Amino acid sequence: MNESTLTASSMQTAHSAKRVFRPGRMILRLILYILSLFIIFGPISSLLLWSFAEKWYWPNILPTDWGLLYWQKVMDGKMLQSLNYSFVIAIIVTLSSILLTVPIAYMLARFKIPAKSLLLLIFLLPQAFPQLPVFTNAMVLMYRWDLVGTLTGVVLTHLVGALVFSVWTLVSVFQSIAPAYEEAAVMLGASRLRSFFTIALPLAFPGIAAASLLVFLYSLDEFTGSLLIGAPFITTMPIYMYNAAMGYEMQVASVTALLLMIPGILLLVLLDRFMKSEYLSAFGRV
């Protein structure tokens, strides 16, 4: 038996030893899986139970009467109007944010700009402080401009918080693209503007899509600013759910929460597809 055969045999023996059944480790893994599933799906299962509960009294563990009464009530009520407001505002905020921040992020990533770190920090400031005082100050300005209770006011309020997600993500996206491609195009006679539109922008598309999804999700779930600036005239889905919960309409609040979670889950799946590791590694570097 030669040396290579002995080595292969030794490796196979070691591998078999690793695969020895260990009941203690198996039980520990099973407990961890069950605990993880409970933490993730526990709150959602409560929402599901409440959404189909027509009657649920203490001390019953489960509802006594089941049905679709509150699903029908939500669909027939003002929920669709709130859903429409939420999507329209999120789409406007996403498009505005991308249009504003793509050129800013490109310049921050490609050119030597004085106090670049300070500029990025300014975009981060609205998220660095508690949201309530930030939006309260914004509300004072909105009153002066007669924008409280208007769609424009809510969009501007969402933009304050959304820009940080867009700018910081897009700066890392453009930094992850090698400048050599654009430099080669410029050397071949293309203008700087043309190299941006024909090379940098197409290469940055997955990152732009990821930034758009982050902004859309933020705007769709934004609550504090929408309550202070929009309510009661602009009622988004989070405000509708809050009003239902405050009125102790647990079934209506649960149905609304489940409906609000659906686009969030779908968009997070898309975000996982577009968000690349190189964007995350370049995040925050200037």
List the helices and strands and how they pair.
Blueprint: H1 3-18, H2 23-51, E1 53-55, E2 65-66, H3 69-76, H4 79-110, H5 116-128, H6 131-144, H7 151-175, H8 180-187, H9 192-203, H10 205-221, H11 224-230, H12 237-246, H13 250-274, H14 277-281
Antiparallel strand pairs: 1-2
Helix pairs in contact: 2-13, 3-13, 4-7, 4-10, 5-7, 6-11, 7-10, 7-11, 8-9, 10-13, 12-13
Keywords: Cell inner membrane, Cell membrane, Membrane, Transmembrane, Transmembrane helix, Transport
Membrane topology: Multi-pass membrane protein
Pfam family, one: BPD_transp_1
3D structure, described in words:
It is built from 14 helices and two strands; from the N terminus they run ααββαααααααααααα. It has a two-stranded antiparallel sheet with strand order 1-2. The protein has helices at 3-18, 23-51, 69-76, 79-110, 116-128, 131-144, 151-175, 180-187, 192-203, 205-221, 224-230, 237-246, 250-274, 277-281; strands spanning 53-55, 65-66.
Radius of gyration: 26 Å
Helix count? 14
Class inferred from helices and paired strands: mainly alpha
**Percent in strands:** under 5%
Give a summary of the structure in a few sentences.
Belongs to the binding-protein-dependent transport system permease family. It is a multi-pass membrane protein. The chain has 14 helices and two strands; from the N terminus they run ααββαααααααααααα.
Features:
single chain; 286 residues; mainly alpha; 14 helices; 2 strands; globular; transport; ABC transporter permease subunit; cell membrane; MetI-like_sf
